[in-house]
C-alpha cells in the first residue's frame, strides 16, 4: 500500500461541508427518490460540525439520503467503503442512493473519500468480504492475518470492526447502527463516537431511531419529516417522547397500545 493513500490531511473534520439538489439533474420529479417530500422544494444541507445526526420516521427518506451521501463519497450504496464492493451484498438492500447522488452537488474542504458506510442489513456480507481479503490496511492487525469479524456476535463484530476502522481519517456514515447494538453496546458506541470526535479527523453522518445516540453532546441533531430537515433537541423528537412514556409506565403503555389496536381488530372482524 502506498504512503500516499495512508497520508493524513492536516485539516480537521468536517470535510463534506454542504450538499444540495441540482434541479437540472433531476430526471423525473414524480419518480422515486425525487418524489420524497424533503426533495420537493430546494434541498440544501450544511455540515458545520464533525457529527451530524438525522432522526425521523420510517419512509421519510433517511436511508436514501445517507445512500446518496455515501455514493458521493465513493462508497457502495448498499454498504462498505471505497474499493469494497462484494458481489454477494449487491442485492442485500433496496438502494436508491445512486440515483439521488447523480442529482446532488457537494462542497468538500478538502475532498475525503476514506471511511465507511455502515448498514445493518449488509454488515455480515461486508464483514465476510473483509475477512476474506488481506488485513494489511487495518491498524493494529498484522499484515496478511484476516480480522475474522464473523467469529463475533453481530454487535461485537460491528464494534470491533469500527474500533479498527475509525482510527484513520475519513467520513463515516451510519444508517441505524442501533439495529446491531443492544443498549449496553450503544453505550460503547457512544464512547467510540467520542474517540472519533477527539481525533479531529473523522466526520460522522448518522441516521438513527435511538434517543441514546441522538443525545450525543455537541452533535447537530436534525429531524427529517415531510416538511424537510429542521434542527431539534432530543427531547423534541417523537422517539424520545414515546420512550419517556414507556419508561414512566411500561405495563400501562403497552396495554394502552394493545387496547388501541384491539377495537379496530374487532371492528374489522365484523365485516
UniProtKB/TrEMBL annotation:
It comes from the Bacteria. PANTHER family: IRON(3+)-HYDROXAMATE IMPORT ATP-BINDING PROTEIN FHUC. GO terms for biological process: double-strand break repair; iron ion transport. InterPro entries: AAA+_ATPase, ATPase_AAA_core, P-loop_NTPase, Rad50/SbcC_AAA, Siderophore_ABC-ATPase. GO terms for molecular function: ATP binding; ATP hydrolysis activity. SUPFAM superfamilies: P-loop containing nucleoside triphosphate hydrolases. It is a peripheral membrane protein. The keyword Iron applies. It is found in: Cell membrane. It holds the Pfam family AAA_23. This is Predicted ATPase. Residues 48-228 form the AAA+ ATPase domain.
Amino acid at each position: 500500500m502506498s504512503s500516499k493513500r495512508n497520508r493524513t490531511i492536516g485539516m480537521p473534520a468536517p470535510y463534506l461541508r454542504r450538499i444540495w439538489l441540482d434541479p437540472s439533474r433531476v430526471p423525473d420529479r414524480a419518480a422515486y427518490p425525487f418524489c420524497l417530500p424533503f426533495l420537493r422544494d430546494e434541498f440544501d444541507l450544511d455540515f458545520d460540525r464533525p457529527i451530524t445526526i438525522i432522526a425521523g420516521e420510517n419512509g421519510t427518506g433517511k436511508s436514501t439520503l445517507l445512500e446518496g451521501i455515501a455514493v458521493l463519497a465513493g462508497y457502495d450504496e448498499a454498504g462498505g467503503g471505497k474499493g469494497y464492493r462484494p458481489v454477494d451484498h449487491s442485492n442485500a438492500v433496496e438502494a436508491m442512493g445512486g440515483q439521488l447522488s447523480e442529482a446532488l452537488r457537494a462542497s468538500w474542504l478538502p475532498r475525503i473519500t476514506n471511511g465507511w458506510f455502515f448498514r445493518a442489513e449488509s454488515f455480515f456480507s461486508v464483514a465476510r468480504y473483509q475477512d476474506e481479503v488481506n488485513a494489511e490496511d487495518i491498524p493494529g492487525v498484522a499484515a496478511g492475518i484476516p480480522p475474522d469479524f464473523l467469529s463475533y456476535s453481530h454487535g461485537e463484530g460491528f464494534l470491533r470492526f469500527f474500533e479498527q476502522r475509525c482510527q484513520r481519517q475519513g467520513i463515516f456514515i451510519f444508517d441505524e447502527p442501533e439495529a446491531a447494538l443492544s443498549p449496553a453496546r450503544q453505550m460503547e458506541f457512544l464512547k467510540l463516537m467520542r474517540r472519533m470526535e477527539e481525533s479531529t479527523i473523522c466526520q460522522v453522518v448518522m441516521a438513527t431511531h435511538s434517543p441514546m445516540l441522538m443525545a450525543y453532546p455537541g452533535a447537530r441533531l436534525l429531524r427529517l419529516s415531510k416538511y424537510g430537515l429542521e434542527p431539534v433537541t432530543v427531547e423534541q423528537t417523537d422517539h424520545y417522547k414515546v420512550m419517556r412514556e414507556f419508561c414512566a409506565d411500561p405495563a400501562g403503555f403497552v396495554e394502552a397500545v394493545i387496547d388501541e389496536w384491539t377495537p379496530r381488530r374487532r371492528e374489522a372482524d365484523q365485516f
